[in-house]
Every structure is written in structure tokens, then in C-alpha cells.
Write a structure and sequence with these properties.
Helix content: 25-40%
Oligomer: single chain
Radius of gyration: 21 Å
Structural class: alpha/beta
Number of helices: 11
Strand order of the largest sheet: 5-14-13-12-11-10-7-6
Low-confidence stretches: none
Distance between the termini: 51 Å
Amino acid sequence: MAAKNTYTSTALRFDLSEVSSSGCVLRRGRLSLKGREPIDTPHYLPPSSRGCVPHITQDMARSNTGIKGIYVALEDFLEKATDQDLPIYNTPASLDQSRLRQFTALHRDALSVMGPRRQPPVEARAANTDTSIAIQTSLGFSSLRSDDYVEAVQKLKPDIVLGLADYEYMKRPGVKRLEKMGDRTLSWTQAMVACLRGDGDRSLGTALFAPILPIEARQQSYYLNLLKEDLADQTSGIVLFDAASVDAIPAEMRYMPRLSLTEIRGPSGVLDQVALGSDIIIPSFVGEATDAGLALSFAFPVSGRPANGQRLQLGINMWWKSYASDPTPIVDGCTCYTCSKHHRAFVRHLLDAKEMLAWVLLQMHNLHVMDVFFDGVRESINSGMFESDRDVFEESYERELPVGTGPGPR
């Protein structure tokens, strides 16, 4: 029996059904924001490069994929220049328009989610401070001050903003640093809440997803207590850097939507995130597979196990010479634009000729595979078969994607 709950804030509505299965609680929901197409969860948002999904334009994403939003990193737009010189800040927009949406030409009903860093981020050389985090811009390593991040949200007006967290990618915090992480994150979250609240009726309309740090709950207890007691009413969701930190989420905030920034290397990692209760996932492996010349070929649930007992490959290396004369679709039965209009030999020829169209076609195919994959995940949760379907998937497919053997697009 599914337990149904609805969470509402001034910025969004989240209708949630929780299903207990084999000791874990699976979440099935619908995320709705005013003026945006609802997103059925669990689902994914592709990471973008300067506001665009790599290799495809916004109109192509609209007509040939099921993408309903994108994740945008502020550090993509920051350079060693004054704020007034940044093109995105000078984009013409009326008071009720988003400069971020105008600059990126994002469709009016697609969701925009903005965070400070790319996904996955590049390990920064410098350390975070009491007032800033270390980032990497297009011109090198720099820092992003909390006040500047707040100002960017005011100027760009994303639909959802991820709160600034004192978390350093690929670095294990020491004992002294653990004591600072919660205090810094609390201070930065309070500043963002004050910004989004505005004066009277002049709120920005941006939903804040508050960060849960990837450390034990007791090590961030002061931050978590104030988050649930003083800031929960101004918070619309949760962002996790490690989905295993789900146990640290205060009980009063369990029905909020959860966005996971956990680094994922393949579909098995996605299923792990779903089992841990993530609602929105940012998978970087899709774009990485496209860059490597790989066509994703997995499906969930698995329609049939391999007869010979061998595991199925998660993707097809389109650089293989054997595909140069293969007139069949990349994946039999796939209904994406690429498989409907073209064949393996054509894509292999484009790769060999270093034509950018090769990666365009592969990206559209790979995003379609992810769309169908998440459709299957949601149906599996609805039918109560997710755990058994997941076991079959793990037994049927390799754990990791194959390695590309050709040069990338750049």
C-alpha cells in the first residue's frame, strides 16, 4: 500500500507516494511549478554546458527528447571580469522574466535548476572559506562568494536554486573542518532565504533546495536543527551530495522533493539512487558516453535475460570498424530520431569523418534511452516490482559502460 502525501511551498507542489519494498522506501511523485511542465519522479535532468545540453540545440531537445528541464552551473558563466561585464547579467529581460531563461533560450515550460558548480565538478585547488567556495571558471580556478551567489540568483531568477554548501569535491574533511561545515552552510542558507523572501509580495518565486552535507547527522546537528525549526518554511526541497545522507534529513522535511548530486557512472548507479529515495538525478555519464562515441543500449525492466549466461553491454562502441557497412539501426526496436532515420554505418562514417553530426545523433539517441529507462523505473515502482526488476538488471548487464576507442568531439 502506497502512503500518499503532498508538500506545498510558495514556489512548488510535490505529490508523493511512498512504497515500502524489501526494507527500503521507494518514492514516486510529481513535481509541479507554476508555468512549467510537471515532472513525474524519479526522473533525471541532464547537466548543461553554459545552459545548453551538449551537442543539441534547445529546439532539438524539445522535439526529439523527453527532457523537461536542465541543470545549470553558475561557474560556467563566471569569468575574471566584473559582474557588469558578464553577458548573462546584461541579457535584456523584463521584471517578470528570467535572464537565465532568456540567455539560454530555454523553452518557457522547461524547468531551470541552478547550482554553483558543474556536475560532476572539477576538484578545486583552493579551499572554501567562511564567505566563499572554490570554483573553476572558463579562465581558471577562482572563488564564488556567498553574497555574489545570492546576487546571481536575484539577477538570473532560476526556477530552483541549490543552496550553497561547504562541501569540497574529492576532499575528505578533517576534524577541524567538520566543525565549520555546518556553520558555514547554515550562514549561506540563511542569506539565500532572506534573498528569496524579498520584501512583502516581491519574492523572486525561486524555490530553494537546502543542502544536506555528506557527513554524519551528529556532525551537522546544529545546522539540521535550525534548518527544520527556522528555515523549513522557506525551503522547498533538499539537495544531497551523497544519497546515503538521506538518513540525515529531518523528519519534518521528508516529504520535500530531493535532488541528488551524487556522481553516477552508469544505470546501476541510477537504480541505487532511486532505491535510496532520490527524486531528481543529474547523471553526467550520458554526455560522457556520447563524447566517447558510445550508444547506450540498456533497458529497464529487462525484457529477457541472455540465453548464454553472458552479461549484456550497457552501450555500443560506434567506433568499431565492423559497423562501417552495417545498415541496421543502432539499437533494434529503438524509436528515437537517430534509429528511425539513420543506421550504424552512417553514424560510423560521421565519426570517422569527425563530423559534429555524429555526436548530435548519438546524444539524441542516448537521451531517448534515458527517457525510456526512467519510464520503466516509474512503472516498476508502481507495479511493486522494482526490487526484483533491479536484481534482474544487475544480473543481466555489465556494471560499467564500455570504453570508447576513438577521439572525442573536441
